[in-house]
Amino acid sequence: MKTTLTTTLAVAALTGTTAFAHYGMIIPNDPMISQEDGRSVQLTMSFSHPFELNGMVLDAPVAFSVTHDGETTDLLGDLVSADVMDQPGYTLDYPLGRPGTYVFAMEPRPYWEPAEDSYIVHYTKTYVSAFDDDEGWDTELGLRTEIVPLSKPFGLWEGNVFQGIVMLEGEPVPYAEVEVEYYNEDLTATVPSELMITQTVKADENGVFTYATPTDGWWGFAALNTAPETIAFEGEEKAVELGAVIWVHFEDWAE
Amino acid sequence: MRRLLAIATVVAFASTAQAHQLNVFAFVQDGTVIVETKFSSGKIPVSGEARVLDANSEVILTLPLEEDGTVRFPLDLEVASGGMTIEVTTGEGHDDYWILTPEDIANGSES
């Protein structure tokens, strides 16, 4: 069920709007690697407007790691430069040595966004299950900000809800704003209104948010907050947007 | 992801594995094949049997699970040259398998 709606993306593009959300992205070739799929996962890292497939430069991240069975491994030196959406990004072929959930996380360098007059730092992660073992699917990494999944972040059907807790500095964020966007990989999804490119939900008083996807594919959830610190740009202190991004794949319901 | 092969295997085994699916994993370390089993709930099977099949699907070994849900046996490179399949059936009527490919065997140890 790929959404086929009235107004095409071209209309959105013609408006020249910059209202679409930015997303750090970590996209595996498969969120659930079975033994028949092989013994590794291929990851693609980028920074983009994922619905429009509008890439931006992803500079060398500050940190890139994988966490499995309680152990975190630095993979920063293993990233391979690559063009993603016609912009610099990275890829990684990571061997899966044992069953369980592997959580890949990236802390990018602050991105200066003149249109928003602020810097953007999106702590980005995704969860990959190896060999039919989902142990560790609810792992909290302890990032400065992150979405801790309440729904298993793989093996979801299209139409399922995804729930998570928005965390900032180790605490839930009441009524946090969460932006949701579809990775429009083949540009087949269209929207009747720009308002629907990025959908927005708010968390409850416990920082818990819920979203039901209308179709299968990769969906990005970004909880946005403002850091207490600022970063200087051309001699002027600028605000820093902290994003907690998680990418979750929903599977096609095929009978 | 779409585990057609696995599903076909499960059907063939008439498995009843649903809520507490059995997971089997095996690797080679220092000349020993180590088989690990656990349910999706995280619990370890308290009983069960492992059957080791060669590349021609001939059963070459049958061993009971240890109390910790593992099975260990020496790697016979001559027999294992084409790979091995380890099928595990537990007393609870669950089953699963792991295929040790020639590459897995050549790598010789877990990552």
Provide an overview of this structure.
With 255 residues, chain A is mostly beta strands. Chain A has one domain. Helices cover 3% and strands 53% of the residues of chain A. Chain A is built from 1 helix and 20 strands. In chain A, strands 2, 5, 6, 9, 10, 11, 13, 16, 17, 19 and 20 form an 11-stranded mixed β-sheet that branches. The longest helix of chain A has 7 residues. Chain A is globular and about 55 Å long. Chain A starts with 8 loop residues before the first helix and ends with a strand. The N terminus of chain A is likely disordered. Chain B has a single domain, classed as Sandwich (Immunoglobulin-like), CATH 2.60.40. The N terminus of chain B is likely disordered. In chain B, the strands form 2 sheets. Chain B has a 4-stranded antiparallel β-sheet. In chain B, strands 1-2-5 form a 3-stranded antiparallel β-sheet. Helices cover 18% and strands 41% of the residues of chain B. Chain B is of the alpha+beta class and 111 residues long.
> What is the residue-averaged pLDDT of chain A?
92
Radius of gyration of chain A: 18 Å
Helix and strand run of chain B: HEEEEEHEEH
Q: CATH architecture of chain B, please?
A: Sandwich
Label this structure with key terms:
heterodimer, A: about 260 residues, mainly beta, five-stranded antiparallel β-sheet, 1 helix, 20 strands, about 5% helix, disordered N terminus, B: about 110 residues, alpha+beta, Immunoglobulin-like, four-stranded antiparallel β-sheet, three-stranded antiparallel β-sheet, 3 helices
Task: Report a brief summary of the structure.
The complex is a heterodimer of chains A (about 260) and B (about 110). Chain A is mostly beta strands.
How is the secondary structure organized here?
The complex is a heterodimer of chains A (255) and B (111).
Chain A: H1 9-15, E1 23-28, E2 32-33, E3 40-49, E4 54-56, E5 63-68, E6 71-74, E7 80-84, E8 87-95, E9 100-107, E10 111-113, E11 118-130, E12 145-149, E13 156-157, E14 161-168, E15 171-172, E16 177-182, E17 198-202, E18 208-212, E19 217-233, E20 236-251
Parallel strand pairs in A: 2-11, 11-20, 13-20
Antiparallel strand pairs in A: 1-3, 3-4, 3-8, 5-6, 5-9, 7-8, 9-11, 10-11, 12-14, 14-15, 14-18, 16-17, 16-19, 19-20
Chain B: H1 4-13, E1 22-29, E2 32-39, E3 48-53, E4 59-64, E5 70-74, H2 77-80, E6 84-90, E7 95-100, H3 102-107
Antiparallel strand pairs in B: 1-2, 2-5, 3-4, 3-6, 6-7
